[in-house]
Amino acid sequence: MVQTRSLIDEQGLRTDGRTTDELRNVKIQVGIVKNADGSAYIEFGKNRIIAAVYGPREVHPKHMAQPDRCVLRCRYHMSPFSTDTRKNPAPSRREVEISKVMREALEPAVMLEDYPRAAIDVFVEVLQADGGSRCAGITAASVALADAGINMRDIVSACAAGKVDGKIVLDINDVEDKEGSADMPLAYLPHLERVTLLQLDGILNQEEFNECLDKALQGCKMIYEIQRKALIQKYFGDEQELKEES
Amino acid sequence: MQEIKRKYVVPGDRIIEGNFRPLSNVTKSGNSIFATRIGIAEATRDGIKVIPLSGVYIPRVNDIVIGKIIDHSSLSWQVDISSCFSAHLPAQDVFGRDFSPARDDMNKQLAIGDLVTARIMAFDRTRDPMLTVQDKDLGRIPRGEFLKISATRVPRLIGKRGSMIQTIEQATQTRILIGQNGIVVVTGRNAEGTQLAIRAIRMVEEEAHTSNLTQRIKTLLNVPEPQSTETLPESAESEGQKLNSIPDTEEQVQEELGKGDIE
Fold first, then answer.
1. Whether the predicted pLDDT of A40 surpasses 90
2. Which residues from chain A sit within 8 angstroms of residue B14, using beta carbons?
3. Residues of B near A (CB-CB distance < 8 A)?
4. Which residue has the higher pLDDT, A241 or B212?
5. In the CATH scheme, what is the homologous superfamily, with its name and number, of domain B145-257?
6. Where are the domains of chain B?
7. CA A237: distance to chain centroid?
8. What is the CATH number of domain B7-52?
9. Do B27 and A111 make contact, defined as CB atoms within 8 angstroms?
10. What is the DSSP secondary structure assignment for residue A77, as one 8-state letter?
């Protein structure tokens, strides 16, 4: 596909009408999978993703169990109907890799040593894919983990930034991912101020990298507010602050 | 210590800064205390804790739990206590010191599928929980309706000084056994009462975080006097000793059924 139009127009707006530091619409719902111990559904632009968490539960096969901590198992999967051409449901190289980086992004937040000899299973199912599904998946998975009542040091928020038409922009969508010049997904612990995932596909110089990192961090902080609101909404309804009962 | 009020927290939230003692579901980092679960943060005289609103049951020593016998080896029963660890109930605990696997038939005392009330005798990070029924009111549950609620809802179901559970029991003419692991067994004189009690318990589970719940439960159960539990008609006084301790509730059932099952 040959792209003739530019990805950023004269007014500085992107293909979907956003400014350079605007997120796509993000909506999170908590507790939508009744069978799971914790779950979340996220709409991140055109991404539609369900995350479900089971556990802590017994480890099968038994030999996988760790005597001093819990094992965190992640599965990222794209459903066959999530893309415009059918996606083979067998786990692809890409999905295996994303499962791994997702696990590594979540592990620092989960207090695994609190649940020795047990396992926590995280399932992330992409129903509709747009760019940045790994970030949306991590975001949803961490909300689902909190919903499951697993001890966590912090919530994990994830967001990407990248370079499009020579400009650093926040939250790369599918078109910008394919035709832009760099894509940098980032997962972040907002309270602890730690980065748990940093990938970069493309080339940035030092200056651009710093700008990109700052932008992605800002994005993560915005995502965190949405995650927090979704959790509070599920557990406490509309009242955001606790009113003292007499 | 009174400077912080109760507040809603999600994992990672800073609850308070300063020299306070971390209790449950919090972590201390530097000079601050952070929440590790979603719930309600609370300051007590002893320190800071978070009352969690979700999560599976993690065994603790001396908890009273209700479990289901799922298997037995020659020396112990395996009990499902709806946790990530399955518990063991040693045969000697039931048969006494002179238990012999060759002579005694374990199925005679506890068959697979039976429900037992038991106390967690020992549990640490390295071994599965060990149960005992060697206490008053522990042992096989002969009958009742079984239901599972989230373990985090158990304190709400019991209520302040047992108010919630007393209300349900009195209004529906049932006896309700609650394990700390979230397994509930309802025994009633008639099916309607039992069904009503189950509906009330389900309602408590779903609306546990809302305020004024006892009042709405009373409305559901048609409890006449919309007053506090202390002034409930008649039996409130005589059952005053029940409070919120679980064994006492069990005592009532066993008294009513007139038998201690494991002896």
1. yes
2. 191
3. 5-8, 10-14, 25, 27, 34, 36-40, 52-56, 58, 84-86, 125-126, 152, 209-211
4. B212
5. K Homology domain, type 1 (3.30.1370.10)
6. 7-52, 64-140, 145-257
7. 24
8. 2.40.50.100
9. yes
10. E
Question: Mutating which of B3, B10, B207 best tests the A interface, going by the most A Cβ atoms within 10 A?
Answer: B10
Nearest to A146 among B10, B86, B209 (CB): B10
Mean pLDDT of the region B58-66: 94
Q: Which amino acid is at A102?
A: M
Domains of chain A, each with CATH number or no CATH: 26-236 (3.30.230.70)
Q: Cβ contacts of residue A213 below 8 Å, gap of 6+?
A: A161, A184, A186, A198
Topology agreement, domain B7-52 and domain B64-140: yes
More confident residue, A1 or B32: B32
Lowest mean pLDDT among B4-13, B190-199, B223-232: B223-232
**Residue B178 in tokens:** 């609650």
Separation in Å, CA A100 to CA A92, A93, A105, B244: 13, 11, 9, 46
CB contact under 8 A, B36 and A151: yes
Structure tokens at A191: 């309270």
Q: What is the ipTM of this complex?
A: 0.87
**CATH code for residues B64-140:** 2.40.50.140
Chain position carrying tokens 């110089």: A205
For residue A37, the chain B residues in CB contact (below 8 A) are 54-56
Mean pLDDT of A191-219: 95
Q: Which residues pair with B262 in a beta bridge?
A: none
Nearest partner of A124 among A150, A105, A144, A108, judged by Cα: A144
Cβ contact B222:B200 at 8 Å:
no
Write the CB contacts of A118 (distance below 8 Å, at least 6 apart in sequence).
A55, A56, A57, A58, A59, A65, A70, A71, B84, B85
pLDDT tens digit sequence for A132-144:
999 999 999 999 9
